[in-house]
Amino acid sequence: MRWLLDTSVCIPLINLMIASIALSHGFSLVTRNTDEFARVPGLDVDRW
Prior knowledge:
Helix 3 (34-37) links the parallel strand 1 and strand 2. The protein has one domain. By secondary structure, the protein is an alpha+beta fold. A two-stranded parallel ribbon has the order 1-2. The chain contains three helices and two strands; from the N terminus they run H-H-E-H-E. The model has no long low-confidence stretch (mean pLDDT 87). The N and C termini lie far apart (25 Å).
């Protein structure tokens, strides 16, 4: 998640962990919190 260090994006650690797990396994993330997770490049986010 090098992009995070290069930007001023502020996402809570727990959400970064969830996003990282989804990305590493190639999963889509289903959530109501689409605004925050949509800022993670490459993450497929679906609204619940």
